[in-house]
Amino acid sequence: MSTAIDLRLGIDVGGTNTDAVVLDRADGLVAKAKRPTTADVSGGIAAAVDAVLSAPGVEPSRVTHVMLGTTHATNAVLERRGLERVAVVRIGRPSTTSVPPLMMWPDDLRVAVSAGEAVIGGGLEFDGREIVPLDGDELRRFLDPLAGSVDGVALTSVFTSVSAEHELAAEAIVREVMGDDIHVSLSHEIGSVGLLERENATVLNAALRAVAVEVAGALGTALASHGLEPATFFAQNDGTLMALDYAVSHPMLTIGSGPANSLRGAAYLTGLRDAMVADVGGTSTDVGVLANGFPRESSAAVEIGGIRTNFRMPDLVAIAVGGGSVISDDGVGPRSVGYRLPDEALVFGGATPTLTDAAVAAGRAEIGTAPPQAHHASLMAGLERADGMLADAVDRVKTARGDRPLVVVGGGSVLVPDRLPGVSEVIRPPHHDVANAIGAAIAAVSGQIDRIYHVGESGRDALLAQAREEARDEAVRAGADPERVEIVELEELPLAYLTTPSVRMRVKAAGPLLS
Amino acid sequence: MRHNAAMRIDVDTLPALARGCSVLGAGGGGDTYVSVLACTHAMRECGPVDLVDLDDLPDDGLIMSCGGIGAPTVSIEKLGSEREGEWLRESLEEVTGRPVVAVMAAEIGGGNGIHPISWAARMRLPFVDADAMGRAFPEVQQQTMEIAGIDPSPCAMTDERGNRVVIRTADGHWLERLARAAAVEFGGTASSAEYPMTAAQARGATVRGSVSHALRIGRALEAPDDPVRALGEAIGAVLLLHGKLTDVERRVAGGFVRGSATVEGLEGHRGRLLQLEIQNENLVALEDGRPRAMVPDIITVLDAETGHAIHTERLRYGQRVSVVAFPCDPVWRTEAGLALAGPGAFGYEFGYVPVEELSA
To answer: What's the pLDDT score for residue B6?
Structure first.
């Protein structure tokens, strides 16, 4: 995409609100809008996009790039909504049969997603040899009765990080049997070493295809109504961008983009590179850490809807405290009125006491009309409880003793008191309410490799150079400026207990969009 | 001495057992996650497994002491089949001419402490409440049977395709060399059974009760308010340092991952530094250049919050950890034990000092 950058439109589709911002070439905020997320996604996107594009100072035809971040895929998995039927194929027999595919999936999710599972002959050794040759006939026999009744096929081959040859050969067979229109998810494009986690992520990816198409379609329609066809990107879990057409076939990579965007947005809004960040939404609050301007990543396996994956996600402590959290005699949350806040909260004339009402009663915010005095005591008790949960979350993400600044962003940030234990200063940057959308708009483009290399005659330094080069190429292919791409992460993990030296390298390169 | 009344290992026992095996692994022995799933699958198909004491087995009954050998990174990608245990048994029975009466884990530490249970389930054989290390060690000959003078041969090896070899070697060191080379040809991991012995021999040549010991540790860490205190009460573990990992360095040398990790003290331990020396397992913990604990005693890095042991391959910058150490089985503190797996065996010049003395 060679369009010179002019205005950028950043959009964040959250569970409660859809936010949009327009940034100029110097990353200055030109316009922002916040609209309720709608059940069909498209209504919320259209409303937010319409609002910013009609704001003063915005000339819609100058919008050259659009970046969208969404938690839609995550929510679809959590709510088992809009998921497609997938034929699950693992290429690895006779290896791997000790743990069958989807073994630990919750029953309801497995029923919703899986049209059948097979472990077929094939897969590679860590050194690139075949475990056994790919058994194409076995694959055909499994697929034949499923043709016409599944939406997609997920293919996961052993040691695909060494070579994807068996996945690619199997894909050709899938297309032969099921036609060119079938969606095929290949594990080497989704996850890293760790068969079960990568397989889980690949199956979820195939199941989420329709959800991604829905969001992309809604965005396209909203933009088309303004006569726009800009270069379009989706935000990924690491806070960087991927091109729209790639995102549509790789929706799993958008999982976790919400928190990554809010952390990056907080860094941008405050200029801080090291701080704690609390993103307060309608239902929950995520507390994370900015380290050198990027989200600190979790080292633990990440579970999504009860399924273990090997994604790198921002290291967060999530608590069920948000603007819509319901206050009752039992305490506060986890129930939330969510996007119905404007109808149900006391300050808006509703009948449900929420944390937003408590914040107003405590004088932390001026919204609507003061809640009835009768509720005052229970509102204060709820707020005190929420403050305690927040202080605990802050303490848990902290890696050093001593007080540190806390940047507060998100629509529910009025809840956060000005003083918290362990916090040197509560910073509420201007435009904090649209930090996610800003985070999406300023994101860099990245490329990543995660492969096993054999340390042969060329030696380690040559391999390292090769791995860096490959990651850089990936980033440039995704749209990054070749002149400004940097290696942002490099991890080298030698394989133990082998007499032939092999090393697993994870390299990520990122750079700003080519302008 | 009877160590344990008859009990069963079922699907619900596995998570606690896995936690305990990880703590005993001293950072090694492989990840337990895949092994727990393999056992769960085997038990769903074949039922739970009886845990037996060696005293309850016939004197001349053949014990199959076994586990996986190879690269942990390979074993989370190329998982095993369901049949390796059977093939190992067939090979052993063929060359010894005697039936196997029970399965034993050669190494209680990490996934190797769990995985053989899946084989026992599939063969419907009991599982022995003992192992040959009481922890995890990097090399095949670092087993208590070596100290007891039991022949490591014949050693049976197999892969997931049913390729099988039987190795007879001059001694344990040769077995380590040849078995390691075979594992690479098998694809980076293999299953092996070595030091075949009778129940009568095993009674004096193993770490008795180590499975129930692991289970006790795992239960102590079920939902602890204070994991370090729970481990202190359960097994006499001492806290070396509570802090944050600030440096992790790894390199390959002679087929092993060697490296070091630095833990910077937090809270009450602020201002202190602990250096961990690693060869697949945590070997030595140094503070101000002086050892605080050393192999063969067990040094384990715990996640400060959950109390779960962190494998050496999963140590990462920024993790908040509590480093604990506790005594190894007494057999490793004998002259023969130290020659095989003491600091000298890993190339250190200093002599062994028990962790209790170092922290006294």
So the answer is: 60
Whether A90 contacts chain B with CB within 8 A = no
Assign A511 a pLDDT band (cuts: 50, 70, 90): confident
Give how far A244 is from chain B: nearest CA, Å: 30
- Of the candidates A331, A436, A430, the residue with the CA atom closest to the CA atom of residue A18: A436
CA distances from A204 to A188, A197, A324, B300 (A): 14, 11, 30, 35
Looking at residue B2, its pLDDT comes to 46
Interface test with B, best of A99, A105, A292, A297 (most B CBs within 10 A): A99
Contacting B residues, span 65-124, partner chain A, CB-CB under 8 Å:
69-74, 76-82, 118
- HSE value, Cβ hemisphere, 13 Å, CA-based, for B54: 25
- Is the minimum CB–CB distance between B44 and chain A shorter than 8 Å? no
Q: Is B178 exposed, middle or buried (0-12, 13-18, 19+ CB in 10 A)?
A: middle
The whole-angstrom distance between B349's CA and the closest CA on chain A is 24
* Cα dist from B252 to A493, B176, B208, whole Å: 9, 18, 34
CA distance B263 to chain A (A): 12
Closest CA to B58 of B207, B199, B206: B199
For chain A, the first-to-last Cα distance in angstroms comes to: 10
Render A437-472 in DSSP notation, one character per residue.
HHHHHTPPEEEEEEEEEE--TTHHHHHHHHHHHHHH
> Could you tell me if B3 and B289 are in contact, meaning their C-beta atoms sit under 8 angstroms apart?
no
Beta strands (DSSP E) in A225-371 are 231-235, 241-243, 275-280, 285-291, 294-295, 302-304, 307-309, 317-319, 325-328, 331-336
pLDDT at A74 over 70: yes
Residue A43 belongs to what H/E stretch? helix A42-53
CB atoms < 10 A from the CB of B316, how many?
A: 15
State how far the Cα of B316 lies from the Cα of B248, in Å rounded to an integer: 7
Non-local (6+) Cβ contacts of A164 within 8 A are A157, A186, A188
pLDDT, tens digit, 9 for 90 and up, residues B176-201: 999 999 998 999 999 999 999 999 99
Q: Is B161 on the interface with A (CB under 8 A)?
A: yes
**8-state DSSP, A283:** S
DSSP assignment of B107-168? --SGGGGTHHHHHHHHHT--EEEEESSSS--SSTT-SHHHHTT----SEEEE-TT--EEEE-
- The answer to whether the CB of B318 falls within 8 A of the CB of A296 is yes
Residue type, A496: A
For the segment B8-64, what is each residue's pLDDT rounded down to a tens digit?
999 999 999 999 999 999 998 888 999 999 999 999 999 999 999 999 999 999 999
Look at the block and give the residue holding tokens 């099988």.
Answer: B164
Q: Please tell me the distance from the alpha carbon of residue A358 to that of residue A346, in angstroms, as a whole number.
A: 9
SS (H, E, C) A122-148: CCECCCCCECCCCCHHHHHHHHHHHCC
Cα(A246)–Cα(A243) distance, integer angstroms? 5
- For the stretch B222-245, pLDDT in tens is 877 888 999 999 999 999 999 988
User: Over 90: is that where the pLDDT of B112 sits?
Assistant: yes
Q: Check if B270 contacts A (Cβ < 8 Å).
A: yes
DSSP E strand stretches across A2-111? 7-13, 17-23, 29-36, 63-70, 86-93
Closest CA–CA distance from residue B317 to any residue of chain A (Å):
9
Q: Which two tokens stand for residue B133?
A: 């290390």
